[in-house]
UniProtKB/TrEMBL annotation:
Keywords: Calcium, Lipoprotein, Metal-binding, Myristate, Repeat
Record's keyword annotation contains Lipoprotein: yes
GO MF annotation, one: calcium ion binding
One GO BP: neuromuscular junction development
Protein name: EF-hand domain-containing protein
Source species, domain of life: Eukaryota
Record-linked SMART domains: EFh
One GO CC annotation: synapse
UniProt xrefs under PROSITE patterns: EF_HAND_1, EF_HAND_2
Entry similarity comment: Belongs to the recoverin family.
Classification via InterPro entries: EF-hand-dom_pair, EF_Hand_1_Ca_BS, EF_hand_dom, Recoverin
Native organism taxonomy: Eukaryota, Metazoa, Ecdysozoa, Arthropoda, Hexapoda
EF-hand domain sequence ranges: 60-95, 96-131, 143-178
Length: 187
């Protein structure tokens, strides 16, 4: 593949400054760093996991990183191109709360059917617990299953054992720890 995305075209930069919360200068800086880490212009899942391992040396972020990778890889081709990377980074770092919650919903909705099931929620919560490397101290959340049960008790308003985007958004706004747990909470 060679240097697939070694130089950003101006129309790409214009599109990204319109579609993201980054300036042209920031996009160029991020692109330079992206190419430094991914000379062929593609970030693989293994490379993505390696990055997460640098930030979470006490735990095992592999499962969580794979789940996040799936959301970053918008076209499902098995790699993250720079445009996918910068769009996801824009939402997770600078997006408004609804944008972050929509992104988080996509993360939790592993099978993309428009609902978060208990199993999907457990999958993410368990991955977060593995990544952090320690269990929360509170008794009612000291296992992934207890955390999932608590989340569903709070969010699943119609008690159908699955969360709609609306239930997820409303519940997350009522319990901001959902967003914070994903490091999507902003400053």
């Amino acid at each position: 593949m060679g240097k697939k995305n070694s130089k950003l075209k101006q129309d790409t930069i214009d599109r990204l400054t319109t579609d993201t919360y980054f300036t042209e200068k920031e996009i160029r800086q991020w692109h330079k760093g992206f190419l430094k880490d991914c000379p062929n212009g593609l970030l693989t899942e293994q490379g993505f996991i390696k990055i997460y391992k640098q930030f979470f040396p006490q735990g095992d972020p592999s499962k969580f990183a794979s789940l996040v990778f799936r959301v970053f890889d918008e076209n499902n081709d098995g790699s993250i191109e720079f445009e996918e990377f910068i769009r996801a980074l824009s939402i997770t770092s600078r997006g408004n709360l609804d944008e972050k919650l929509n992104w988080a919903f996509r993360l939790y909705d592993v099978d993309n059917d428009g609902f978060i099931t208990r199993d999907e929620m457990y999958n993410i919560v368990d991955a977060i617990y593995q990544m952090v490397g320690q269990q929360p101290a509170t008794e009612d959340e000291n296992t992934p299953q207890k955390r999932v049960d608590k989340i569903f008790d709070q969010m699943d308003k119609n008690h159908d054992d699955r969360l709609t985007l609306e239930e997820f958004r409303d519940g997350s706004k009522a319990d901001p720890r959902i967003v914070q747990a994903l490091s999507l909470g902003g400053d």
